[in-house]
From TrEMBL:
EC top class, as a word: lyase
Reaction(s) this enzyme catalyzes, per UniProt: hydrogencarbonate + H(+) = CO2 + H2O
Pfam families with a match to the protein in the record: Pro_CA
Name this polypeptide is given: Carbonic anhydrase
Protein's UniProt keywords contain Endoplasmic reticulum: no
Species this chain originates from: Massariosphaeria phaeospora
Its biological purpose: Reversible hydration of carbon dioxide.
Cofactor remark from the record: Binds 1 zinc ion per subunit.
Keywords noted in UniProt: Lyase, Metal-binding, Zinc
């Protein structure tokens, strides 16, 4: 299974490329918005959020963290013209299941002391409550001068039902 990703790519990309007809899209997102969400494998942003190809940036990381995504958000907004951000966390997120100390312990157990040293100052940005984390991230963005003029809304996507519900 170590190369299942490559196997899927080889098979899936052939069929995708054979049907592909959208090779002339512009670089900046045509609908001028960005989505920030979690890397969770159960979320299919294009399908779940109705995003046409070329319309929006989709930025993903563990937890859909605004701090982690800040660099990409600035590029999206300042260099590529997006003016709206949908910040979407989700139910049953892995980030609810550990804290920094636990993550560092796992690295030490799996990879040893040298590896543990490499992550000793890394903030994994876990959170104990989804709704509060959405509010915190939206406010963290709204507090920054560089985000002024960007319309930011916060959402929770429900992995059990496929529904996205607005929080703020
Ligand atoms: Zn998640």
């Amino acid at each position: 299974m170590a190369n299942q990703g490559e196997l899927n790519l080889n098979e899936g990309n052939k069929s995708y490329a054979s049907r592909f007809t959208d090779g002339k899209l512009a670089l900046p997102p045509s609908q001028k918005y960005a989505v920030l969400t979690c890397m969770d494998a159960r979320i299919d942003p294009s399908a779940a959020l109705g995003i046409p190809l070329g319309a929006a940036h989709v930025i993903r990381n563990a937890g859909g963290s605004a701090r982690d995504a800040f660099r990409s958000l600035i590029i999206s907004q300042q260099l590529l013209g997006t003016t709206e951000l949908l910040l979407i966390k989700h139910t049953d997120c892995g980030m609810l299941t550990f804290d920094n100390a636990a993550a560092r312990d796992i690295v030490r157990k799996n990879k040893g002391d040298t590896a543990a040293k490499e992550v000793e100052n890394l903030d994994f940005l876990p959170f104990p409550n989804i709704e509060q984390a959405v509010l915190d991230d939206v406010r963290w963005l709204q507090d920054r001068a560089v985000e002024q003029g960007v319309r930011v809304t916060g959402w929770i996507y429900h992995v059990e039902t496929g529904e996205a519900k607005r929080v703020i």
